[in-house]
Every structure is written in C-alpha cells, then in structure tokens.
Amino acid sequence: MVVAGRGIIEAMDPEELRREGVRFIEWLADFHERVESLPVRSQNRPGDVRAQLPQSAPQDPESYAEILSDVERIIEPGLTHWQSPNFFAYFPANISAASVFGELMSAGFGVQGMLWTTSPSCTELETHMLDWMQDALGLPVHFNSKGEGGGVIQDSASSATLCAMLAARERATEGESNIRGLFGGAPLVAYGTEHAHSSLEKAARICGVGSSQLHLIEVDDQLAMRPEELDRRIREDIEAGLRPFFVNAVVGTTSTNAIDPLPGVAQVCRAHGVWLHVDAAMSGIAALCPEFRKIHDGVEGADSYTVNAHKWMLTNFDCNLFWVRSRAALTGALGLLPEYLNNRASASGEVIDYRDWQIPLGRRFRALKLWFVLRRFGLQGLQALVRGHVALAMEFAGWVTAHPDFELSFAVPLNLVCFRHLDSDDFNQRLLERVNDSGKLYLTHTKIDGVMLLRMSIGGANTNRAHVERAWSVLVATASELRAADEGA
Amino acid sequence: MVVAGRGIIEAMDPEELRREGVRFIEWLADFHERVESLPVRSQNRPGDVRAQLPQSAPQDPESYAEILSDVERIIEPGLTHWQSPNFFAYFPANISAASVFGELMSAGFGVQGMLWTTSPSCTELETHMLDWMQDALGLPVHFNSKGEGGGVIQDSASSATLCAMLAARERATEGESNIRGLFGGAPLVAYGTEHAHSSLEKAARICGVGSSQLHLIEVDDQLAMRPEELDRRIREDIEAGLRPFFVNAVVGTTSTNAIDPLPGVAQVCRAHGVWLHVDAAMSGIAALCPEFRKIHDGVEGADSYTVNAHKWMLTNFDCNLFWVRSRAALTGALGLLPEYLNNRASASGEVIDYRDWQIPLGRRFRALKLWFVLRRFGLQGLQALVRGHVALAMEFAGWVTAHPDFELSFAVPLNLVCFRHLDSDDFNQRLLERVNDSGKLYLTHTKIDGVMLLRMSIGGANTNRAHVERAWSVLVATASELRAADEGA
User: Fold this and answer.
1) Disulfide engineering: A246 pairs with which of A156, A190, A395, B389, CB 3.0-4.6 Å?
2) pLDDT by residue (tens digit) across A209-255?
3) 272-331 in A: which are within 8 Å (CB) of B?
4) Is the peptide bond before B131 cis (omega within 30 degrees of 0)?
5) B residues 444-483 near A, CB within 8 Å?
C-alpha cells in the first residue's frame, strides 16, 4: 500500500481520501441508525480491549477493511454510547451531523491556529463566533471583541477556569507572580462553594495557590452561595493579612444544577476588587432561550465567563467558550513571544494571537464546527432543542413527585432532575447499578450531605419523550423487583 | 430544514450524515488535489474574513450548499496551507487520509474519555498505543504501562511539560504544594537553556514558580546544555537555600534542532534527586529509524518524556505523546475525585482514569487516529518518510554550503536547515518577506545571538525533491533580484 507517489511515500493521497472516506461515512451513518439498540454503558470488563490488540505496532501496512472491521469488533463494544438517546448520565454531550462535518473539515485542512498569521481564518472566525454567541446568550457587551474584552475557544471549562484564575493572580499581584513566583508573598485566597466543579480546586492547586487557600462559602437550602457569607469571609481574610483575589460563581452546579446568586456575589466582588469568574459550563446554553435568560441575571459583574458548546449545543467536544472583560488581563498572564514566533502581523498589533489566551501553544480550527452548527440549525432550532429538553425534565420531575416510592430532591431549574427512592442509600445504589447493568439506559449519581441522589440529565440529540418515559418505567420496574427480592430474602 | 423527527428536532440524522458527508469528503479530496497551487501563506489582510461574515448568528437554518460555498469563498483564502508541499515554516504538521478518518470516527462516536467507564475503548486503546510507541521509538521500558509508568495523549508538548513540572513540584514538596500552595516555602528552581521552547517558561509561570526561578544554563557552540554548568548552578542554588526540582532537556530545539546531552544531564539530575523532563517535541519521531535513535542516548535517566505524533508522523493535531516513569507521581499531582465521578471501575483500582493525567477533565478519543496511522503505513512506511525528509534536508544543506552567497549556520542533525545569506540581517529579513509574499513557498526565521537565520523545515506529507529544489531556486533568484535592486538604488 505504501508506494512511491507524489511525496516520498503516498502519505496524503486525495484519491484515497475520496474513495475510502465514503466507506467511513457510510459506516458512521449505519452506526447512528443502530446506536439506540446498543447497551448504553459499555459491558466491557477491564482489559477486554487490550487483550484483543497485538503486542506491538505492525511493520507493514494494513488495509482499511481490516482497520474498520477491528473498529466494529474491538472498539465499538468498549464504547459507552454518549450519543444514545437513552444516555442520561453525567451531562449531555450531544452532537450533530453538522458538527461532525466541521470536525472533518478542520482535520482535512490540518492548519495550526496558534498565531493569526498561521491561518487568519482560524483566528477571525473564532473571534466572530464568540461575538455571535455573546449576543445569542445575552451576555454583557463588555465580553464582545469590539471593546476591550473578547472570547476564545478552550478545550474545556476546566482550562477556562484555570486561565481565569491565572489572569486574576497576575492582576492581584500586579504582574509579580509570573516573574517572581508566589514564594514569600502573603497567601492569595480563592472562593467558591463545595458544590463548584472539581476543576476549581484543581486550578487552585495547579497555579500554586493550594487547596487550603480555596475557602468554601456556606450555601442556602438550594445549595447556592450566600453572598453575605462571602462578604464576611473576605473581610475576615483581609483582616488576617491574606489576599482575596478570585471568586468562582456557578450557574448550574454539576451535582444538582444549583445557581449562585450573581447579583449579590458580583456586588461583593466589586466592593473588594476581587475577580469574578462565572462557570456556566452546561446550563449557560439555556440562555439561548429568552425565557431562561434569567439564569444570567447579574452576569454584568463578571470579569470572565465560560460555557460549553460541547455539552448542550450539538457541537463536538472540544468547544468550550470563554470570555474575558479585559483581553489585556488574559494576555498579560499567558503571553510570551519567542523570536521564532515573531512576525509582521503580530508586531502590528492589529491581530489576535490566540496562543496568548490559553495554556498550550498549538490549536486546532475548532470554530468551524460551531459555525456549521449555528448555520445548520439557526438559533431557532437550538432554542427548540433546549426547550424540549427542559419540558421533558419537568415532566419527569412530575412523575417522580407523583410516585409514592420516590422523591424529588431539589427544584428542577432546567434539564437535570435529582431524585431518589425513599428506601436507603444502599437501595438506591443497587437500583442504579442494576439499571445501568441492563444496558437499557445509563444514569449517574451524586451525594449531598452524605445522601445518595440519582441524576437524570436530559439532553441527547435524539432523545424524545418515548425515551424518557421508558427510562422512568425501567426505574420503577427495577425498584419493584429489588423490593420484592429484599422482602423475599 | 428543522423538522420534527426522531428527537425533539432532527438533531442527529443518520441519513443526513450519509448524504451530506459525501459532499464534504469530495470537497476535501478536491482541495488536496489543488492545495499545491495555492499561495502557501495566506495573502489576507487583518479583518478580511470578518468583513465577509454577518454581524449576528442566523435565526433560521441554512443549507449545506451555502455553508460549503462560504468555506471556499471566505475561509480558504484565509488559510495558511500547512498541508502544501511548499510549506517549510515553523515545524511540520503533516497529516494523512488515515488520520483524517480517525478524526472523523472520533467525532462520529462523540464519546468522552475522562474515566475508563465513560468509554473503556478510549482509555485502553490509548494506553496500548503509547506502549506501542514506547517500543517503536526505543524509549526505556520504565515508560511502559506494564510497570509503574505509562503514557497518555496530551493536546500539546506545552501541556505535557506543564504536567511534568506539576508532578515534579509535588514530589519535591512531598505533596505540600497542592494543599498549602507555594507561599512561605523556599523558592523552587527549574533549569533549562535559553533555547528550550517558550512553553518551559510558560509552565514555570503557570505553576507559581515564576520566570526568575527558571535558571538558564550555559550552552556549547552547538547550543546544547553544558552538564557541568548545570551541576555547578544546582550546587550554587542549594548552597543559597533554594530548592532545585526540575530540569528540562531538549532533543531538537525549535530554533536550530540542538540536542542537549542527555547522559551528562541525567547524571547531574540523579546526583541531586531532581526530576528530568525530556522535550523531544518534533525530533523524537526520528527515533522510529534505528539509524537516528542515537538522539535518545541517555533517555533512560528521564522521569518524563514527550514527543508530538502531530508534527512529523502524519497524525492530526492534537496528538502529543507523554510518558512518565511513575504514574503515581503524575496522578498524585493531578488527581481529584468528586462524588459525581465516583464509579465501581475507578474504585476497583484496576483501570486508568486519564482525567487524573491532565489539566482538563474531558477528553476526546484521540488514540483512534494514531492507531489508524500506525496500521495504514506500518512502521516501515513512517520510517521511509522520516528518512526521506532527512535526506532532503542534507541535500539542501549541501546546496547552501556550495553557494558563495549563503552559509549554513549549524550542523543539520535531522530535517531542519538553519542558514543565511551572507549579506546583512536586514537583507535576510527582506529576502524572507519577499519569498513568503510570493506565495510560492513559506519559511520562517529565528535569531541566535542577535543574528537572523532562515529556517527550512522539511517535513510535508507530500513534499518531494522537486519542491525542495524549487524552494532553493526561488531563494537564490529572489536574493539576486534584491541584490540587483540594492545595487541599482
């Protein structure tokens, strides 16, 4: 198969791309026809995949027929099907044909977007898409690139939060921490609640602030931050000689979709000159719909904001959207210009070089898929999807409430339902495992104040009412079976 | 176009994937037929792309015909063609049809690889591919997952270096820095040379160590680190009460492909108990060929090592390969387990959860493309490609040496040729700009001791002798024109 051709070997053959590409497209289309019938969570045992693979890389070329046959035989059974309409675990990661085509084109172009000059389209389309999304989500105009702010695509909300924290660290230390490090200064302190995503603590560790300088603020009965407690703690810390520098507020916590009160939190941050970062990783997308835009009340006070197009907006991972009020604060923290990257366009100051807005240097052309999705569906299509998922979640919550053996654990603001069987934690754990082992659906859990809750996250691209209804039937029937077995024992 | 269908809207329609997918595949194949004829560096001016885009996202769906027509009309002219056989700038980022298919399948599956249980194939294929590559590159067996080490795919060598530094920081502070932060302790010190990649300094800043605690070690006349100077500086720093914790050695610097002497550097690191990280971002791939494997002499002393499959191995960005001698050191630095991610498989200890090996939480299925490339070409195909590029670089270096107006600046160990016209820096700058403005080829520069050098990086998937010969002809002819114009002026 390796022959002398255009290059040293036939490394990138357009004819091969044309001929064999159709084979992969056909296979994927077939896969999506049948994904609903596959077990949702992989039934594999640890090591099942590796046991079927040769011990070392082949010396000689193999055919695409062999490769694709192994994908079907070895890889597919080891997948947990995030694209199944019966997937209700963790968070949605819904995708669309439009997004897959965007990824295909990005891969086919094979360009690097580290600097404007290394592919102007890659940078400019990204800036433009972030401006479109700032507008579509009703975010403050100070995040638009026309002013002093702007947006960028990151791989994940974790990285966005880390970048925000680094920008805040630089601002708080007036540029000292990048140069002199953190040794010797008074401890910097970050704030959040215990319900913030684990990436907040990870960021505090990575940037040298440390877990013990992440101060957790008390929450109310809906697990939302109490602004007056934030204020009290910041004053106390200043009194103690510490340096408060960063507050992380959440719009839709991972566990239960709790929403921190942004107006109150922002007021406290402003009073103390502390950077406010808003993490709306999944839930922020709901703001595409005017009727849900209230989740963003108070976001005018944010210095940075992040949401994932790759969760609930039909766009493939990775496509995190991250905005800052001040581009200069971010590039001041992350910019470095070695001579080998110096170029006329960068020197002119007329362009954005996104390498200075992120941890890595290299970057893919990720804006393409976002552009494709926005055009293929239009904002109205995406709004219809979000509305539909929220309506299904409300309906599911109603079934839970009406059932004598189950209870709703928290109010349902959007598409996540937290609930439990009235029996013990152990019973709920067994219920979860038996349902997931069946392959019929997949859902996950959390613990709040030590109590086990089941999480039903509704957001599949092809999930409709029938799937949600069936999920509820399976849960109810499985609970009855377990109860009967427990009573028989 | 948005109709009621399987889901709430027709969000992921297999028929659409099948029908429209062929359209994109055909377009990409045509693009690769003609990419050689396009200007290599985009001729766009800042703002050209954005000026052609609507001010806000569409409310209604648009057709794929419209989208693809805009890709051709707006996006393509704004691309710098990294896949052109006339691209000799920065570093290679060569791709192949096999890799594009791997990306396509990864996008089509749309799974999350953050935990083993969220898709066992994603984790196990990755571990297996890293074991294959450890063997294929002749790397020490302590990096193989069978022992206490193992490998992982990161987005970039920048992130790999940051992760290595974080693991080293935790080891040096005995787990204190993640919890207590860096405040109050004696300064930690990292080491490298001024020719190390800028990501080394960026990592030192991010993790709170600071640029001024990155001590640059003197180099020899080939710009390689002097181990005796490293030893001297570490002793001096210990004497001064500082804590040396991390040494970054480079196999193939970005500017000139200099190679730090690993045996001597490793000996110093071992003597002082300092973490040794080896950054072989581009050049490490040469070790696929036994005759170039000497670049890895001494790598047995490394605690971590990184190389990019996405530079010189026909694999799409992002596909950085990163190995550590001790998995526990890495996961000790980056691991965190919130309840909502807890699951049976993780609790069993039998599986790898790659979220604990990286900065972000989420991760794509990137091992697929690497598997496809290794199987489609076999190691022999990849070796032939590397050998061919190195031979072309040697030949180009010969032409430079033989020409009375040009000089070779450094020995050429692999596929990068650093050279200059004997005229002034200003002349070389104008030569570079005129050549790049012509669109016929694209190359970049660096400065060493203030002197401007041109960099000819040979590694395109479809680059053959004719392209390299033409590049040289254009350089020589353009230099003559400039000289004639200067003399006429």
Assistant:
1) A190
2) 999 999 999 999 999 999 999 999 999 999 999 999 999 999 999 99
3) 310, 314, 316-318
4) no
5) 444-447, 455, 460-464
Query: Number of helices (H) and strands (E), helices first, in chain A?
Result: 15, 11
CA distance A74 to A78: 7
- Provide the 3-class DSSP secondary structure of residue B145: coil
* Confidence band of B28 (pLDDT split at 50, 70, 90): very high
H-state helical runs in B360-444: 367-402, 425-437
Quick one: DSSP state of residue A296?
A: G
* Interatomic CA distance for residues B127 and B150, integer angstroms: 7
The residue of chain A nearest to residue B345, with distances taken between CA atoms, is A46
pLDDT for A458: 98
**CATH of the structural domain B111-363, one choice from 3.60.140.10, 3.65.10.10, 3.40.640.10, 3.40.50.720:** 3.40.640.10
pLDDT digits (tens, 9 = 90+) for A360-391: 999 999 999 999 999 999 999 999 999 999 99
Disruptive mutation site among A56, A94, A144, A182 for chain B (greatest number of B CBs within 10 Å): A182
Query: What CATH number does the domain located at B380-488 have?
Result: 3.90.1150.10
Listed in sequence order, the residues at least 6 apart from B319 whose beta carbon sits closer than 8 Å to its beta carbon are B153, B308, B309, B310, B366, B369, B370
Residue numbers of B between 161 and 200 with CB closer than 8 Å to A:
162, 166, 177-188, 197-199
Tokens 């026809």 belong to A33
Structure tokens at A407: 């209870």
B454 has a pLDDT exceeding 60: yes
What is the model's pLDDT at position A2? 36
As annotated, the residues of chain A forming the CATH 3.40.640.10 domain(s) are 111-364
Alpha carbon of B410: minimum distance to chain A alpha carbons (Å): 16
Q: What is the pLDDT of residue A294?
A: 96
Closest CA to A110 of B155, B84, B376: B84
Output the pTM of the full model: 0.97
A372-488 maps to which CATH number? 3.90.1150.10
Both tokens of A416, joined, read 């996540």
pLDDT above 70 for B184 = yes
